[in-house]
Amino acid sequence: MTIQNSMKKDLSSKKLFELAKKYAYEYLDNCANANVYPNQQQLKRLEEFNTPLGTQPTPAEEVLRDLHEIGSPATVLHTCGRYFGFIIGGATPVSLGTKWLTDVWDQCGGLYVSSPVNAIIESVCEKWLIDLFQLPPASVVGFVSGGSMANFSAMVAARYHLLRKLGWDVNKKGLNGAPKIRLVTHRQIHASIRKNLVLMGFGDEQIEYVRSDDQGRMIVGELPKLDETCLVFLQAGNANTGSFDDFETVCRKANMVDAWVHIDGAFGLWAAASDRLRHLTKGIEQADSWAVDAHKSLNVPYDSGLVMCRHPDAMINSLHAKGEYFIYSQQRDPMLFTPEMSKRSRAFELWATMKNLGKSGISEMILAFHERARQMEAGLKAANFNVINEVVFNQVLFSMNNDDLTEALIQKIQKSGECWLGGTSWNGKKAIRVSISCWQSTDQDIQHAIRVFKKARKELVNR
Length: 463
Ligand SMILES: *Cc1c(COP(=O)(O)O)cnc(C)c1O
Description:
single chain, alpha/beta, 7-stranded mixed sheet, 4-stranded antiparallel sheet, 14 helices
């Protein structure tokens, strides 16, 4: 049988998909009892993937079986309620179901003509998101792979816009000899901003750093005098403490001189979608651009980031591509708002989750992260751990009495397999980082985690 015929058979018999479904259900059912992190033995088995590429085909059933037998047990249970590492999010059931269905569609979301359904769903999401975050109505949204690309897209739009106003068309003339753009931010800005600046041809030494306070917020009293050449970066949600910058004060100063303010709100901007947490994002609507991840706090599957910008012309001019065979339409052409051309139609899962939850459901899910974080804080304090940060959103930092013990505790907790979290350094000391960003985390999970922390500490101290 030719390979084409064999694939046609796989497609029409649907047995393969039934098998995938069976494995997926087995995986879901196992999750409740599995370790949050794979053990040494499960990790060791991953070496079995390391074979040469065979000359002959491998039956599709066998391929899936290998993935399930070796891969499934070695996954990290991001989607369970006791994974507190990084800021990962989970996946809502409706977003998973949507992904299954729309993966079969395999839509290329670059242009309206390549996928009208994607373009229309993006337009609807754009309206919903601007309403949800209460941003200026004329703002546009680009659907990118994550927070890094969202930041990047906004930053190139800002560069284009600022230089244009200074009489320099960066698309034509490039950066050599361009008027200077002043880059202003603070020490606790996320690494993705710095990385993007380097990708854009700026250097770290060009950044004017304002000091930040003990929660990682810009000390706005020390902001240098801004002018129309300034690109200012602020943050909604510090990746360690969860703190929010003072958007209102900085935006007011920036807007008086026509500087551009970009807000990196990868996980924290979602606070704006909760009535009770909205105060944290006060003033965001006065900025020029915003980056946010749907794959973090909104709990849609990876990869899903959003860039939002109040200057459609700057976005389109900086990201627009010309090519003889492109067919732009009178409708929304998604690739006008993203660095990518061909891209996965990632708006489907976003649309499905927003439609399924509604404003009240989104608000409830986001607030629950905060409530679980407050519960964690209270539990840690009651157990005499040092809680280091003000728990304003979903992040909790705590420590033992010295760095060695803190590090040892992290190792013990990670090895337990009962939950997973990572470490960081805060104000010069080692700290343990808890991030609550998965819809599955319940108050029992938090209680369970605190028991695990106490047990690990006891074992350490009694050694
Ligand atoms: C996660 C994160 C990013 C990077 O986003 P990715 O989706 O990982 O590319 C940027 N900024 C902040 C504050 C983040 O938390």
